[in-house]
Request: fold
Amino acid sequence: MYRERTQEGFRRVSITTFNRARLVRLKGESGASAVEMALILPVLLLFLAGIMDFGLVFNNLMSMRQGIGSSVRQGIVAQPGSSSDCSITGAAGATAQTQKLICLTKTSMGLDPADSRTKISFPTTKVKGGSLILCAQYPLDSTTSLFDPLLHGILKAKVEMRIEQDLSAFGSTSETALSEGDWTWCS
Reply:
């Protein structure tokens, strides 16, 4: 039994009477839920796609920064790793140690090594107290393709640290910049 409010007060109503009255009230609202869902669903899906796209871009940027920082730390103590077997684009004349540092950077970033580009430079000297600058570029794109106009370009990261060991076996070099970019920001 339910209680229903009337002008005189409350009265007891059976469940069947209560359900009948409820059906009469809802009859005029048939389809309203479907219309509301049709209006809200595209906005909700666009919002979720944006979260996914921008989250992946932020993740790529953090991976780049962490990988470059790790590589620079190895580079300033003259321990660039042992592998020089990676795709290096247009860094002709790079010393073996420099190639190893480029490959270490590409591996440390955790992104596609074929798409990333790296630049290594020494603004002053290659001995203790000087600086090692390592920069990287990676193409920026939208995973869902809904935000291509906003997410089209290049992710860039730069790390500079003081040299701790003699780096005379290293040389300044840069890979060919990505098609939409250059290395003017990395100096």
